[in-house]
Amino acid sequence: MERTSLDESLDESAVAEPGAGPAIPLASARHAPQRGPVNDQMSFDEVENRFEPAVIEPGRALALADFSPPSVGAGDRLARFAYRLGLPPGALNPFRKRGRTRLTATVTNPLPGDEAAGKALRAGHFLLLGVRSAIADTEFSGPRLSPPMERLIHGFGWLADLESAGPRAPNVAVAERILATWLAANPKPAPGPAWNVGHTGHRLLAWLVHAPLILSSADRKARARVLLAIAETARWLDRQVHKADDKLDEVAAWTAITAAGLLMEDGHARRLYGEAGLIKALGDLVGDDGGLLSRSPLGQIEAIERIVLLKACYAAVRTDAPAQLDTILTLLVPPLLAMLHGDGALGSWQGAPAVAADRIATLVKASGVRTRPLRDARQWGYQRISAVKSILQFDAAPPPLARHAREGCASTLAFELSHAGQRLIVNCGGAAVAGGQIPLRLAQGLRATAAHSTLTIDDCNSTAVLINGKLGAGVSSVEVDRRTLATENGSGATRIEASHDGYVARYGLTHRRILILRDDGLELRGEDVLVAAGRKGKRGTVGVALRFHLGPHIELAQGQDGFGVTLALPDGSLWQFRSARDPVTIEESLWADGQGRPVATRQLVIQARIPRSGESFSWLLKKMR
């Protein structure tokens, strides 16, 4: 089929804003030699072939973090070794009198909770992701809770919410009542979510950070029971930390162990033990560019939160934290910033909802790290282009390995685009918070390739989506090429080309996607190419669908020829989407907002049946006057 110019098929009303430059981003490197004249009516390939682009290297190189244990003296090394073997803290000094269990300092919490959820607790309800659950009707033992509710209740994350709800006095009674109920339901370690290593690590750290809420009772016996529970939980974690489900849970456990060593009497050996284990676990969790190997923005947030809370414990006892923790925080924050759109909220990747901007801003401020977003993260895998008011996020890496994934998604070569804080193209997101207002039965579908703005073949996932958040066979390698481009008049664009092999084994086809975002942010040009790879790519036909999930509250108007759709954004701006090869249809979709609520949206779909020898699909998204 003869390739047509996308600009020829645009409606006459689709005119770029004054001063925006030519409609097509010209594919050249800045100051690169030009092969011939260029005009606005050229096709995708014709424009690219006029220039010889040059690869632009990443803007900066990241120094690798030092993940070796903190340097200590011979005596401390011996104490740490003895504690790791299971010897009690007094083994090295048997003549020292042992004191009663107590906490030595009060921690100032740097991460405030949700005030509305705290007030709901005072009214007798847990409030999570917009869903209320009566405390009196909550099952505190057994696997009957949804995963998000398990994390909240067994991890005691609700203590931060309660602390934010107002004066301490009425909150203490609520906290003590819920804690007493939980302890009665879980008197000792047993199989089940209550004693999951990750949940237990979160719980112990929450008890230590929010000790005034649970240790202010006038009843000495009640205080003694809570202190005993803290001590026994810390001892249990000492022995079970290596049995965590994944590295992020292990990090949560090590931070709690270290905090217990800092805040509990005679905790010096435990602190040394915890610091060494924590630094090693972080080394196994974090990639060279600072992104978690799970590739999960929610995991990135959790890791930063754990370290920030632990540093608050160091501050409480007026002790300097190991330098490695500051180094790791410096690595962790830039990749998280790269996942933010113009509204300051999170992109929808690896099951994450669009976490609200205020939560992200509070976390980054508490980290003490002042830096810029990571632009070109090869191991973290998310490419970011910032063009004036537009931000493009592109998944240009294989999905996480099964041992790292929590809510792994088959999202390779998907992208999101926002302009002036308005989201145009999104992914559905929300799989990681299913069990709230998003039903659990939708979790698998939200992890599928079709729930992301990319191409699918026969509605199959590019990587197999398994149960329990894991992933199977599929994409094993992704090739990425990022370049800057320039036109004769000095304007330019950024071009990213990536390809994956997720469909090679089943269909013999490689998916290659090219995205070109103009430097003024007003035009995104794309081409999706299926290239035959081996014998399987030469016979028969397959069904192909390109899906572009739209942001919330966008009004649509279908073009008369069926190849274009006009998008009216909530801020009043108009954009036009055009397909060069096949008609565009409009289907229903959903998007998970910052509260984990499903918002009804729509998606633009280009469908076709193509030969296994391959085919290409060009499209254009452009701001209108």
What's the topology here?
Blueprint: H1 44-48, H2 74-84, H3 115-122, E1 125-128, E2 131-134, H4 147-154, H5 158-163, H6 168-185, H7 197-209, H8 211-214, H9 220-240, H10 247-263, H11 268-285, H12 297-316, H13 323-338, H14 357-367, E3 382-387, E4 390-395, E5 415-419, E6 422-426, H15 443-446, E7 455-457, E8 478-486, E9 492-500, H16 504-507, E10 509-518, E11 523-532, E12 541-550, E13 555-558, E14 564-568, E15 574-579, E16 584-592, E17 598-611, E18 614-623
Overall description:
The chain has 625 residues and is an alpha+beta fold. It has helices at residues 44-48, 74-84, 115-122, 147-154, 158-163, 168-185, 197-209, 211-214, 220-240, 247-263, 268-285, 297-316, 323-338, 357-367, 443-446, 504-507; strands at residues 125-128, 131-134, 382-387, 390-395, 415-419, 422-426, 455-457, 478-486, 492-500, 509-518, 523-532, 541-550, 555-558, 564-568, 574-579, 584-592, 598-611, 614-623. Among the domains are: 44-54 and 381-623, Beta-galactosidase, Chain A, domain 5; 102-243, no CATH class. Helix 9 packs across helix 10 (247-263), helix 12 packs antiparallel against helix 13 and helix 12 (297-316) packs across helix 14. It is elongated, with a radius of gyration of 27 Å.
